[in-house]
Amino acid sequence: xxxxxxxxxxxxxxxxxxxxxxxxxxxxxxxxxxxxxxxxxxxxxxxxxxxxxxxxxxxxxxxxxxxxxxxxxxxxxxxxxxxxxxxxxxxxxxxxxxxxxxxxxxxxxxxxxxxxxxxxxxxxxxxxxxxxxxxxxxxxxxxxxxxxxxxxxxxxxxxxxxxxxxxxxxxxxxxxxxxxxxxxxxxxxxxxxxxxxxxxxxxxxxxxxxxxxxxxxxxxxxxxxxxxxxxxxxxxxxxxxxxxxxxxxxxxxxxxxxxxxxxxxxxx
Length: 268
Ligand code: BEZ
Ligand code: FE
Fold this sequence. Notes:
By secondary structure, the protein is of the alpha/beta class. Helices cover 25% and strands 23% of the residues. The chain is built from six helices and 13 strands. Strands 2, 3, 6, 11, 12 and 13 form a six-stranded mixed β-sheet that branches. It has a five-stranded mixed β-sheet with strand order 1-5-4-9-10, with no helix packed on it. A two-stranded antiparallel ribbon has the order 7-8.
């Protein structure tokens, strides 16, 4: 069998840097045994992907794979994460991805999908949205939520406009109870992710865009466990308190509006 050139280069670089770190840190035999026992537990718990996430390698590889291009205005890419589900309900815009009694502040998220080079609207794009509830749980990890709650594929109108009614999601922990979570605590780190809304935007002739929008003011924005926060992806929220406007939306409490436009690259 012919050696794989790329794998050989990667392996040789990793070995060189690992041995240098072992030398620099004067790693002891008990420390090596503890590290190997930890990796064994990570494998047994099926947490290698999570380990890559909290070491912030997943986000760095995503950045290297979807770098910004100074020639266009494409929206920043971000990792998909483990909670995406195919085939969420397909909903014409304006759409609601939860029922009116969903706990939390009502959020109307709206915007336009545009061409990253020409800035022209992209008619009939689809914005696939998924998020946690106020308590930080996705519906698939929470028996109290309905199937596909807080998920939906929203079909934009002919002007590329989407309009989603949802609630403001909550921050959440990604490594509760497993070896990766234990490890983070033992090195003074945490496993919190700031509240965010995942999106996947697609349209015929365009490269699909996976990203996430962050809730402004979240206490974990400065220290996201996976390092995914990008300033351009922090949404702007406006709280509406005017009673007449509240009533005109059929609501009884103040609500939030947010506008976020997505710019997609054409398939080359
Ligand atoms: C998440 O947002 O669900 C997530 C994304 C990447 C890694 C871990 C969790
Ligand atoms: Fe998430």
